[in-house]
Amino acid sequence: MRPLFYIHQSSCISPQSSFEPVDIDQLFEPADNKLMAREPSYDGIPPGILRRMGKAVRIGVGAALPIIKGPAEINGIIIGTANGGMEDCIKFLNQIIQYEEGQLTPGNFVQSTPNGIAAQLGLISKNRSYNITHVHRGLSFENAAIDAAMQLADHQDNSYLLGAVDEISAYNYNIDWLGDWFKDENTGSGTLYNSGTKGSIAGEGAAMFLVNRQKENAAASIIAIKTLHTPDLNLVQQSLVNFLEQNLAEGERIDLLLSGENGDARIDPYYHACETLMGEGTTIARFKHLCGEFTTASAISCWLSCHILQQQRIPEHMLKRKGNPNALNRILVYNNYRGEQHGFMLLGRA
Amino acid sequence: METEELKLQLKKQIIEFLNLISVKPEDIKDDEPLFGEGLGLDSIDSIELIVLLGREYGIDIKDPKEGRKVLVDINTMVAYIEQHRTK
Q1: Domains delineated in chain B
Q2: What is the pTM of this model?
Q3: Exposed, middle or buried by CB within 10 Å (0-12, 13-18, 19+), for A248?
Q4: Which residues of B touch A43 (CB under 8 A)?
Q5: What is the DSSP letter of B83?
Q6: Interface check B17 vs A, CB under 8 A
Q7: Which of A14, A160, B11, B13 meets the CB 3.0–4.6 Å disulfide criterion with A205?
Q8: How many Cα atoms sit within 13 Å of A7 on the Cβ side?
Q9: Does domain A5-212 have CATH number 3.40.50.2300?
Q10: Domain A220-349 falls in which CATH fold?
Q11: What does the pLDDT look like over B30-87, one tens digit per residue?
Q12: What residue spans in chain A does CATH classification 3.40.47.10 cover?
């Protein structure tokens, strides 16, 4: 089956050492149940622009810089984000209250709009072509990737910058914590997956990809993507069966299931149901202890998949079950956001 | 408040409002242009500075021509604040 597109370059700013130099064997633990992004020095962003950027814009632009400053011509910028610059948004809303809808500074507002990241990338790279932001909660990245695939189906010779970003905002963290989406007890990578309690740990990050339909020199490929909205576990399981039947060739199997398991006991049954569909030879690995739970964590899993496909090895701390693949050729990412939004991504070795 | 004390306070407020990373109050000279050369501020910063004057000193600048005369450097801003502040 011909892939939807090939990934030629990828870049990631996350709570781990994922950005120059990359070292995901080393594990950075959460502090106060939050995994904050390890930010680089952003040498490529002019200081006058950098000082106005909120974190989401900063990490999004920072992760994209190695790609947009590269030699490839980019025919469009396609970004997924659920919240954009949430921290700046809250600052702006607080200003409205504090100053009784009087004089408001423009900086926070400009930085807070979800499309600010793609817009800033367009301005920095002087790219006036297709520029769009997909805002679909836990499926923002998947929908951005589907858009990239649709664009490439119509424009076979184009290349696109595809990516996703979201940040932890203190205000939203507190709301989500009150909603039982983050754990009460102090949790680290060693206790996240077997806590048996509600909630996960918070995370943030940005992952960017240069995608097109040229196979030569590609790092990986995305073969298929499927999304669905449902709390029905049986429907999710059946959808995965159909997805694999439609997209795996005769005799092919999943070498690695990269599971979005996040330590929330309410969500675990979905992941367990999907694991049961994998043969014994399939390796199962997890990634939320690396980046935490957030709306576009699946973009980080896509970056990790590219890294694993290229390196042909999986860091020990990610392994849940070791299978017996001869090589890592097919990776299935299953990510579930709050038991309602499900995304399947099938990646292949280029 | 003494003029020198007001200058220091204003410099700290400008750094905070404009998020001037790595700039210290002593780096901003009293007669250094705020826009173009010197601090290198731009048009969005001018709006932030007008909001700063309104919030911190109760000064409402509505005429852009007047704003251009005030937002030249620290000396001109402080002189204007001393004459027109309402808080």
Answers
A1: 3-84 (1.10.1200.10)
A2: 0.91
A3: middle
A4: none
A5: H
A6: yes
A7: A14
A8: 27
A9: no
A10: Peroxisomal Thiolase; Chain A, domain 1 (3.40.47)
A11: 999 999 877 888 888 998 899 999 989 999 888 878 888 999 999 999 999 999 999 8
A12: 5-212, 220-349
